[in-house]
Amino acid sequence: MRKMNLSDFVILSGVRSTKSKTTQKASVAKMRGLIFITEPKSWGCEQPHLGLFRKGSVVALLSAALAVSAHAQEDELSLQLNGFVDSYHALQVERPHKIMSSRTRLRLEMRANYGEASLFSSVNLAYNSLIKEQSGAFLREAYFDYAGKYLEVKAGRQIVTWGVADGLRITDLISPMDYTEFMANDYDDIRVPVNAINLKYPGESFSAEVVFVPVPEYFVIPTNDGNPWQMPVPNGVRMDLSGTPEKRIKNSEVGGRLRFFLENLDFSITALRTFNKSPVTVMKLDPETKSALIKGVYKPMNVVGGDVSIPAGELVIRGEAGFYFGEPIALRNACDFRLRKTFNGLVGLDWYAGGNWTFMFQYMHKIVMDYRDELGLEQNTSMLTARISKELLNNTLKLSVYGMFDVDNVGFYVRPAGDYLLNDQITLSLGADILGGRRGTFETYKKNTQIWVKGKFFF
Q1: CATH class held by domain 9-458
Q2: Pairing state of beta strands 300-312 and 9-10?
């Protein structure tokens, strides 16, 4: 195997909550999200802006809620306001023991319910001492929701999740990821909401869903100076990832999903017209400076796949697969790319053992069809993940360890953590992020091994 260099981002998501009816019979464990750089010789990804909070967005939702209340009976309208305050701080283990992250946030969530319809919005008021662009007020989600007997509608800024993979992206490709702080963010913050219309038929034995995204969002990659997780690029090389597709209907995103709920089997079939949200990057000559320039490439991509979930006593067997048609892959010389069909598959086993023990294991494999040696990605790549957790002290203390192992680059990431529920509103957490290996992202960021503390207050 040739030597790894910093290149393309393989998309790994954050926590996956398996929402099928069968898997809901067991409590669902959560995991962190991260990026893993693999063999393709490309750097980086587009930096879609976070949904910046505008006063008019929230005011519009509040005005709509008040308008509804003016014409509704008192017992038909309900307003909910809740949220949390959290503070997260991380310290580098190795010298010079830099502050890796230091941020505090207020999350406000409002929901107005009227019959089968509701309005929801969430806003972040954040202060980040290291990354100034992350300080301010930001609109997170804002959507209209209707839950009828034969039709469910969700329209607005929302997070869309598909599939059953736990932290690995196979068919869950609509909502991209925000890796501004790499693995330091929670799952809720790693996912980037999209402006979408989601129509769903909620049958008892099956459901049908159609999602339309007029303007897709793309990955947020750490490129700012001063960010400890800044994506490394060679000296004297400039990166330009601004070439996302034009905001036109022809570049919209549309997909459908059929889900079937049987007595001991849940499965779904999905189809999606999307883009490579994490762009392939190629090296060009900057016409202005006559120096090397890294350009991002975004191409339309069709995906057909599905997932399955089978409960068997204390076990849940999961599987997910996706065929990508027209996935761009950078060449070894990083000067161009090729479009290829790829197969992406995953099998997982969850064991919800007695005594509040949980064990979760996954294996993911990627195969590049019509392979050529000129490609900067190996024909076969694979990843292993594992999570073990135990709840103690009347379920007030949760100890967990989560790990990823990059088989091809012999790289690893381990995250031990402890969460203590001081009361119903306050959670205190302590943990670490340990990275290392021979090649790849985990080896590249091994000096970023860190310990962290977090406090969270719900209201």
Answers
A1: mainly beta
A2: unpaired
